[in-house]
Amino acid sequence: MTEPSDPLISIRDVSKRFGTFKAVDGVSLDIRRGEFFSLLGASGSGKTTLLRMLAGFEAVSDGRIVIDGQAMEEVPPHFRPINMVFQNYAIFPHLNVRDNIAYGLRKFRPTPAQREAMVDEMLDLIKLPGYGNRRAHELSGGQRQRVALARALILKPKVLLLDEPLGALDKQLREQMQLELRLLQQKLGITFVLVTHDQEEALTLSDRIAVMSKGAVIQVDTPTGLYERPKNRVIAGFIGNMNFFDATPSSTGSPQVDVQGLGLVAVNGRVRARSDGATTLIAIRPEKLALHSEAPVTGGVAGVVQALQYLGGRHMVHVTLAGRDTPVAVALQGGQADVTLTPAPGQPVWISWKDDAVLVLDAD
Amino acid sequence: MSGRSHSHRPNRGLQAYAALFMVFLYGPILIIPLFSFVDALYVRFPIEALTFRWYGELWRREPVIDALGNSLYVAAIVSVVSTAIGVFAAKAIARNRVPGTGAIVTFMMLPLVVPGIIFAVAILIVLNRMGVALSLYTVMAGHLVVCLPFAIWSLLPRFEGFDPSMEEASGDLGENGWWTFWRVTFPIMAPGIAASLLMTFTVSFDEFIMAFFLSGTQQTLPIFVWGQLRFPSQFPSILALSTLILAASFATVFLSLWIGRIGLPKAATGEIPK
Amino acid sequence: MSGANAGTGAVISARPATAGRLSRLMFRHEVLRGYTMLAPALVIMVLAILLPFVLMIVMSFWDQVGFDFDTTPTLQNYREIAEKPIYSALLLRSLWVSGIATLATVLVCYPMAYFVAFHVHRHKMLWLIIITLPFWTSYLMRIFSWKVILGYEGVINSGLMSIGLIDAPLDFLIYSPGAVTLTLAHTWAAFALLPIYVSLEKIDRSVLEAAADLGDSPLVRFFRITLPLSMPGVIAAVFLMFIPTVGDYVTPTLVGGPDGAMIGNLLQVQFGGVNNWPMGAAIAVVMVLAIAVVGLCFLALTALFRRWAT
Ligand SMILES: Nc1ncnc2c1ncn2[C@@H]1O[C@H](COP(=O)(O)OP(=O)(O)OP(=O)(O)O)[C@@H](O)[C@H]1O
Ligand SMILES: [Mg+2]
To answer: What is the CATH number of domain A241-361?
Structure first.
């Protein structure tokens, strides 16, 4: 992947220690201008901590953060060209919506008319015109979220940070707000950095995603990239179905691995050198497997249909292979030629795949 | 012990006990206002006639007015200073991950438990060694020591219940610490600050021991009252004065406790921080 | 942003990009920020607690010569305290009187705290305020009112005489250790009430229900669950009341008489009429030590008792 010459945010070997505990551990990332970037990871993986270091609420223990060419080590939050939407929105309870939105304008000394115009513009943008005089406790969760957005966007930040902004909303509202967030980001062209632990949210919203685990970034890629080239089991399991296989390198330096149930599988040297006999993990998407009712000319593996699952528009066939406990899932695409009828349980079948369908994963 | 059940059934025995307790608590205090209206030089039964005379007499005495003025002056300054210092201390204790917080809090709460006379005497010694003459200002210094724990005590639960992301949001929106304090912290904390002001004002206004050791020629009201207790002829007017003080300080403290507890989580009410 | 932006966009020009050196330093070190905010309070505490204490200890080894001090270190004051019976007698009496007063107050306050914690359901806050209200105010007045009540010609005596129950005033009411104990109990009750109340309020109600469910009668439940769980509050109450009352001298002065005098009176006269400050400092030091010893013994006892009980 080619790195752009001038990332808006450049994070280099950044760590954060709380006492002896490393909440963020040697993270390096580049975030580009105008990008919708997500930090995805399980609870406690350090997403919030990383975001708070970007915003300046936590000082970095090690490493460097550069935003728009300016090193951030000693820049307190109020001098950073960044604004944030807090997880709990942090709407000031003693101010109404208008004053909340206008909060950050004081420094710029707008005339009252300018101020009103800017606030009105924001109220329109978040589709809450006429709510200006309400207090925080008179707003619903979704409305608070919009006010928090407007309060940050009115300052025209270079980067908008969002810490699980949709976490507190119910499913329907969340999906609606996801769409609105994406549209807003495209309209304004501001760089968004979103923290979430919801894979689907990250995949539908983002241009690129950094997957975090235990304080470290495991993989940075586009949603397609994460789907097509996951680096480990967790990421591979994020979306869609996946067949996982344990494999043993057949002999050192060989281009093949010995896969439980599949026999020798070509991996084109993608298995890194390991201590002898160690197992490695490979994965194949169900739709990358082909199903045959007769033995194919080359390289098919025989099995028996165990169950059939209708998924609306397509079928998933679960095939039992000799020497393997879990059945392998095979997705039947509509136009698959070799299968004349939908297979019935008990029927003998063969599966095959192309070499590039085989994913080799990091051992955890 | 009559407290046997935690059930919601009213417990007659316990209710009677509570009533008795209230009589024990307020009875002795109410004796003073009662006899301040009695037209006799001595506090004793039977009561023969009622009068407002003692109250009228009070205002014709200059020392009373002077002492009152001194006390108000001391209490006003002490309450503002101790609350201001208490706000920052409570904020740091509740917010910043400062090592040794527990020890510092214990240290600051010491004046609440250590006998006042010890502090008074110790401070007196320091002032003497430093060659500082006793005055209302030395009384203020003593009162500051007494009032600071009260200020922190009433402010700390407020800060603990105060969402730190409010201040962070302000910083994020471009305000520095000073403006964040005035635009966010102060307005949200206002009830706690008001409670602390009222509380420390009353504590200072009523304080006796520090003032006893540390005041110079100018007396505070409790010191004045103390002096008058020796003269039986002054008794009735002291009763009248005490009644006024009681009424005023009850009202202030009630107000401060009431304001101070508004919007606080239940567990925080009445807790003595350690 | 849309076209409406054109006019207002100019308002937000480039943000100031630099912070002063101090604010950068503060930003990098949260601990420094914390201590800066604590600094005024700490300075006061150090100047008004630590320094005076140290100086007081130093002075307790001096000697008073007329209106001046002889600063050569001597154990003279402590020797006198150890040798003359008046000191140990008053010290012991102080410990005894406030010990009794503390015990009585805790016993009297426990049911009241229990009542508010478990039997008051509406206006709990109001109840709490009302039972603690007197203690925030008018220390002097509260003690004074007992003088008025217990006095030779006071409310009780004159009341009883006027209804003919007694012919002559009862002279044991005032100016006795008993009067001091009673007055202390009344004056400091809040210090016992509040911690007990808080510890009772903290008890998880479902624990009590579980005990009832497991077959404990209310009385058994009280002794097996409620009382042990509220012990921290009781211990706090004992400390909060015992420590300050040992040094009280206003109460003994007003209602104690010669038989009710306490160590605080002795301490006070060293700085007043007797004018022997080093002696006073030594008495204060001894008093603090005595309180500490009694406090530690009490803690050890409760710890032992707990181990024995479980
Ligand atoms: N102020 C702090 N002091 C000590 N440890 C902290 C602090 N803040 C965070 N941590 C620890 O750092 C780790 C990462 O926390 P962080 O809040 O960044 O996780 P997260 O990925 O945002 O999780 P979540 O999805 O639950 O919000 C956690 O183990 C947390 O306990
Ligand atoms: Mg988080």
So the answer is: 2.40.50.140
